[in-house]
Structure formats: C-alpha cells, structure tokens
Amino acid sequence: MTLRSLTLGTGSHQLETSALGYGAMSLAGAYGAITESDSIALLEHVAQREVTFLDTANIYGDGESERVLGKFLKHRREEFVLASKVGIEKGAGVGKRRARGDAAYIKEQIDHSLRRLGTDHLDLYYLHRVDPETPIEESVGALGELVTAGKVRSIGLSEATGEEIARGHAVFPITAVQSEWSIFARDVEPHVLPTCARLGIGFVPYSPVGRGLLTDSFDPQALPAEDIRQNFPWFMPENLPHNAALLARVRDIATGLELPTAGLALAWLYQQAAALGVQIAPIPGTRTAGHWDQLQRGVDVQVPGEAMAELDALAGQVSGDRSFDPRWVSGGREGLLPRG
C-alpha cells in the first residue's frame, strides 16, 4: 500500500508526515490486552505500510504506550514523526481525571516522556486537554518554550474550542489540533475546523472509526467488562442497540462500495476535510494487522455524493454524547453536545 505524505501547519513550524498515522493508545490495553511482542510486531506492520506518524500520550497506560514505542524506535527514531501529549493527571481513572496545563507541570512531564520514548525530542507535543484553571496562553507559552529549548519541534492542542485555538495560536504557532471526528461525531465542524482552516493549522482526527464502532468486526454483544468503551455513552446499554442499528446502515453502504466499513469511515473523513479546506492526518488505533489494512484502504477512495449524503445524515441520529463528560471535549464547551 503506497501512502502519500502531507503537511500539517504552515510556516517554520509545519510538519511533513504520512497522511495516516497510528494512534498508540491501543498498546496500553485500553481496548483489551496486548503483549509487548505483539505490539512491536504490529508497529513493524504499520511501518511496512509506509506510516511515519506515531501518536501517543503520557497518560496511556501511565506511560506504558510511550515505553513500548520507545523500544520499537530504539534504532530507527529518525524514520518517524513522533507525537505525544501532556495535560491529563491520572486520578482515579476514566471520568475521574483532571486536566492540568500549568507551565511547571508541562515542563516537568516532557522529560519523563522523552525518557520513556528514548529520544531527545518530540516532533509534535500536544496539550492533551485544556485546563479550566490555567489560561490557554500560559499552557501554549510553556509548550513554545520547549520548542526554543529543542525538546519539541512543533506544538498542538487537543479538544480545544475554536476560541481557545485562536488564543493559543496568537501566543505561539499551533501546528496541529487533535480532536475526535468521525461519521458519528461531528461537533468539531461548526467552530474548530473553520478556525484551523483560517489559521492554516492541521487537524488530527482521533477515533475516526468511532472507537471501533464503525468497523466490520464490532460486536455489541461482546464488549469486555474491562474495555474502556464501557465508560462512553455511545456504548452504554441504553444507547448501544440504537447505535448498532446505525452501524448496520454504514456497513450496507460500505458493502455497496466494496469497502471495509473502517475504510469507508476514513474515506468519508478525507473527503469531508477537503470540502472544509483542512489538511488531516487521522490516527486510528488497532491491535491487529488485518484491521489496520482495512483502515488504510480508505485513504485515497472517492465516496460518491449519494453515499456521502446518506452518511452525513446519520450523526444527528446517534444516541448519547461522544464523551462521558461534555465539558471534557471542545463541542461540550461550545454548547454543541446535548448535555454541554
């Protein structure tokens, strides 16, 4: 599979990377157990598919994802664009964590991440969540100081509102914004994406296949008790049967186009981004090579207009918010989620 490259951001802080990246939260067991050897084998497979963009965070498995990536990158660091994040304290688990973006914390955490990753710099470093108690200007200023220090080459924001992105960009150039975006999660379209398009900021969609919901392998009857998705409204018992019915409609469209459902989800995303004038590098995560190849099939596919229109209509029918706490994500703070 030949994979094209693209550029995130503009000017001196732009970043050239593959059009598709790998999101490494899965390597920390969020969606089920995976051994270190299987993680390394999967990363090798992804690299063979010409993926050069790897994304992780210090919170994933309390550093486990970074550690595994560091082992994989030990003798090939310069082959990859490496991104990580700071700004979520572990707390008592999903739904009970807190955002932290003060300058002291950011400057402390970068050194821990670099050590686990076995490198002296990150290509992209995000503020993982906006801290309601710390001005975005302070957080972005601290990230910018890491660029000056040579520890980071470019910076980003995750789940920031359109207004927060603009304020941060005025302090130091933002190269990329990372937020959830998929056929079922559309709240970044009214404010976040237009701000990115206006300022020349790249966009990195996470969960582009709806945390595995928009795939051929998802089984609503087989969610393990320890699966992180149990904490998200889409997957709760009162919502999942309805959302599984919507998934069946997406699968029917994919079948008609002779695509895997995950591939269709990515193809829709690229096409939607082009229409909105935003450069994107989605970062799906998976634990299997077969699932990865289904995803990558969607990178350069054109979806017919009738199918795009049918898929567009589904987001308004999804049951439940995309987050356990709407205040935790951009659309919630912009009043775009039902309980935001």
Automatic annotation (TrEMBL):
Q: Which domain of life is it from?
A: Bacteria
SUPFAM superfamilies, A to Z: NAD(P)-linked oxidoreductase
| Residue span(s) of domain NADP-dependent oxidoreductase | 20-314
A GO molecular-function term, please? oxidoreductase activity
Record keywords:
Oxidoreductase
InterPro entries xref list: Aldo-Keto_reductase, NAD(P)_OxRdtase_dom_sf, NADP_OxRdtase_dom
| GO CC annotations on file | cytoplasm
Name of the featured protein: Aryl-alcohol dehydrogenase-like predicted oxidoreductase
